[in-house]
Design a protein that fits this description.
Helices cover 14% and strands 32% of the residues. The strands form two sheets. Strands 1, 2, 3, 4, 7 and 8 form a six-stranded antiparallel beta sheet that branches. A two-stranded antiparallel ribbon has the order 5-6. Strand 5 (61-65) and strand 6 (68-71) form a beta hairpin. It has 125 residues and is α+β, with helices and mostly antiparallel strands. It has helices spanning 26-33, 90-99, and strands at residues 5-11, 18-23, 37-41, 47-51, 61-65, 68-71, 74-79, 85-86.
């Protein structure tokens, strides 16, 4: 069952993470990331909901996530077996606040800031 509101950990550029309760609608989710949403699955099964075009739109770098840098605001939430966004519990909130508590400073020269695509070709002989 879809939650009407979800509890997330939000990362704005240059600011410490905050706990937020947001409406679980497409318009509200897009508003939180300032554009189209993209879901990045984290190793622990949770989601980083980011701006799909953050790098292409020239948004400022926010945080490192794995081997990449997320540009623009983003938030962390869970997902259900039905593919719906769900709230984080208090323990998960605390873990993500701790994980993203350091606000990094970027030079703008980091290679991860360049948009990149991988093209794959297939030979159907």
């Amino acid at each position: 069952m879809k939650e009407n509101k979800i509890k997330v950990v939000k990362m704005d550029i240059g600011r410490p993470p905050v706990v937020k309760e947001i409406d679980n609608t497409l318009a509200a989710l897009q508003g939180e990331v300032s554009g189209l949403i993209e879901c990045v699955y984290l190793d622990d099964g949770f989601l980083a909901v980011v701006n799909e075009e953050g790098k292409l739109n020239g948004m400022e770098p926010n945080r490192r996530l794995g081997s990449d840098i997320i540009c623009g605001p983003f938030f962390i939430c869970g997902d259900s077996e039905d593919g719906e966004f769900v709230s984080l519990d208090d323990k998960q909130v605390e873990e993500y606040i701790q994980m993203f508590s350091d606000v990094p400073i970027f030079t703008g020269e980091e290679p991860e800031l360049k948009p990149r695509m991988t093209f794959m070709g297939f030979d159907f002989k």
